[in-house]
Here is the input.
Amino acid sequence: MSVLIRGTGSAIPDRVLSNADLERLVDTNDEWIVTRTGIRERRMLAPEEATSDIVTRAAQRALEQAKLTPEDLDLIIVATCTPDTFTPATANHVHRNLCHGLAIPAFDVNAACSGFLYGLEVATSMLKSAGYRRVLLAGGEGLTRFMDYQERTVCILFGDAAGAVVLERSDEPGGVLATTLKSDGQYSDLIQIPGGAARRPASPYVLSQREVFVRMKGAQVFKVAVQSMEQVARDTLAKVGWKIDDVDWVIAHQANKRILQVVADRLEVPPEKMPTNLEVRGNTSAASIPLLLDECNRAGRFKRGDKLLLVAFGGGLTWGAAAVEWTQSV
Amino acid sequence: MDLTERIHAIVGEQLGVEKETLVPEANLLDDLGADSLDVVELVMAIEEEFGIEVPDSDAENIRTLGDITSYVEARVESAA
Here is the structure.
């Protein structure tokens, strides 16, 4: 039994937040941001939009590509760390938009930037062992809603986006061949939104301390990030018996240009095998992998039989990888 | 190459700076133009070159090129 990707879709808000726009908000400049992060612009939700709106659009595009309708789905999973609301889950908002009258389960997975890969293992397991046939798996984030535009080292990094895939149980070979998930809670304070939840509920004080925004200790994250991404990539390759040279595409979480460069160097992956959208999308956390997958797929870069290695790292700290053999031809 | 030369070669390559600027009192951030991620990458390159592990608590005390040299000397000697 296999799990195939039947369709991909993505959606980004219309509004562009460029480095020049950020120069007007915080003490920074375009050259500083580009050299240190590789990011020139990112997308930002409109005031009336939320995460589920772009996830819904990404889901519709994935369904359309797969020539399926919401009636063909039997589960919705949304990976996000920036939900519309704590409850209901973002997946329930997506369900409301897409699946009127269909009582299929819908829930969120939160593993920050690794969320899509966590969702991929959950979805794959449910397809293989719990009787599900088709799952809509999305990664979507409204990170700009959680940025402190007074803190120049973090707000330059993140953007809003959504990506989705339709996964289907099949007897054909290929698809999702292996997944590996890891975490280490001792580093939980390296990337966090400390306030606004049960530990430090939103209060005038918590708001005044700007605790409802993302905080990140970038330099400390860097070392753990590159070491664990390399290791989890190698572990996953070993599971499927691939050598790094066998891999056609490494789809890595778009965290930062320099993390990607070091990971590529350590794995000895040439740049042409490692597509990137960081320059125009920024770090979109759980959306980054499905967004990049969809962009490459729609650009016709993937061929049937191509070997893809997906790898991510994020808050938690969490990290993971997946080996996928591409079975779709757009 | 002796230890100092090996360190200078790594620092020169990682930070893309000229040999002449590599003096013991050179501050990594202020004089050699490194940022916090450069320092992390530098520490990782040093770890690899000398087969040592530099805990974050030690890395935080490294400010100058001379700090790196004396730190690595001490670590390599204690291992020998």
User: Anything to note?
Assistant: Chain A has a mean pLDDT of 96.
